Amino acid sequence: AMTGNITHADNVISKWGTGDDLQIYHDGTNTRFHSVTGNTIIRANQVAIQNDSGTENVAIFNEDSSCRLFYDNAEKLATTATGVNVTGASYSSGNIGLNVDNYLGFSDDSFARFVVNDTEILRATAAGNVGIGTDNPSSPLHVSAAKNNGWLAQLINTGTGGDANGLDIHAGVDSSDYILRTREQDGTDVM
User: Could you give the CA distance from residue 28 to residue 156 in angstroms, rounded to a whole number?
Assistant: First the structure.
């Protein structure tokens, strides 16, 4: 049995296996584990990767549980029994695809925001209201914008068939209910 330390100078390779299949050494700057053949297998109930002083986690892998990744010792990504939890923003340089039976959603009683170039363009609330140009939509579709030229909204049917209709509005239960209401900016009714 060995009782002392083994000291290797830089670039002195410790070789393991009949064909020197595993090589471990320090090159003066980096520590290197070189597996020439096969996979490198680490077996443990928990594997933790930490910084040099052992004060910060980089990654923790738990048997039958989570795999957790850290940034500056703050957990940012963790696997769960139902998927993945991400803390903070998630960015993609490509498309994000979902299977037919899955959805993109939020589990809290809050809202979903769609942001382009750091500007919110659409918000959907837990109440089912969708806002474009507003962060507090008060109806199922609430559009607000300061348009000084052009139309606020356009509904264009480019169909050429025999039933290429325009806009169908169903509303009201008696003559006092509005079916279509138009107003000036100051709130004055036009019709």
Answer: 68
